[in-house]
Design brief:
Blueprint (H helix, E strand, L loop, with lengths): L1 H28 L2 H9 L5 H11 L7 H38 L2 H21 L1 H10 L5 H11 L4 H24 L6 H23 L3
Helix pairs in contact: 1-5, 1-7, 2-4, 3-4, 4-7, 4-8, 5-7, 6-7, 6-8, 6-9, 8-9
Length: 211
């Protein structure tokens, strides 16, 4: 498990390094005002640019919640929430797919076969869904946990349901905040933190039974 945790640290470092290098410039460039202007300048393709930025968050230091709020301000809470949710879900699936396909061999060299087997038990069990759903509203963890799920071959149906349980409330919450013209109220964090576990609790028995 220690070697599996090493993979977690490496992935977290890969996410944090671009922020450490370009964080200040990114924060200035991706202010709410600048992000809205950038989306609106794309006209009818603003939604595609917004989703693209959320997908790029896997590789670049994109401020995802600012993009979600800008989508809400541009399209309103409903359409903005749909686009924000799709972008977040797409980013999670991209991370999962890339790591499950291309990263498995590297991960096995770092953690060993036994370490990855421990990870498989963790992510295929009860804890896996919680980790994915709750991580979506936290900094750094969304990308890292989605990658870990791919590396440990978390069952895709379980991953998708858990991913949506976290991404949909997050997307709609920040879109609603953007639509209301407010950037970072405490209510946003509270809703984003509380809704994913509730949705996961409701959906898990439907898709996977009570066990």
């Amino acid at each position: 498990m220690k070697r599996l945790f090493l993979i977690f640290l490496i992935l977290a470092a890969l996410v944090l390094i671009p922020f450490a290098i370009m964080g200040e410039r990114i924060e200035d460039a991706m202010s709410m005002e600048n992000t809205v202007k950038a989306l609106q300048a794309r006209g009818q393709w603003a939604w595609a640019v917004g989703i693209g930025l959320l997908l790029a968050d896997l590789f670049l230091p994109v401020l995802g919640t600012v993009v979600m709020s800008a989508l809400g301000l541009t399209y309103g809470w409903l359409l903005g929430g749909i686009f924000a949710s799709l972008g977040s879900i797409g980013a999670g699936l991209l991370a999962y797919g890339l790591c499950r396909g291309a990263g498995r061999g590297i991960a096995e060299k770092i953690a060993g076969k036994e370490g990855l087997e421990q990870g498989e038990r963790l992510f295929s069990g009860e804890a896996g869904g919680w980790l994915i759903a709750l991580s979506r509203w936290m900094p750094v963890l969304p990308e890292v946990m989605a990658c870990m799920a791919g590396l440990t071959k978390m069952p895709l149906p379980k991953f998708v349901v858990a991913l949506a349980s976290g991404s949909v409330p997050l997307g709609f919450t920040f879109a609603a905040i953007g639509s209301a013209g407010v950037e970072k109220p405490v209510l946003t964090l509270l809703l984003s933190a509380c809704l994913p576990p509730v949705i996961w609790l409701l959906l898990k028995p439907v898709f996977f039974g009570k066990k």
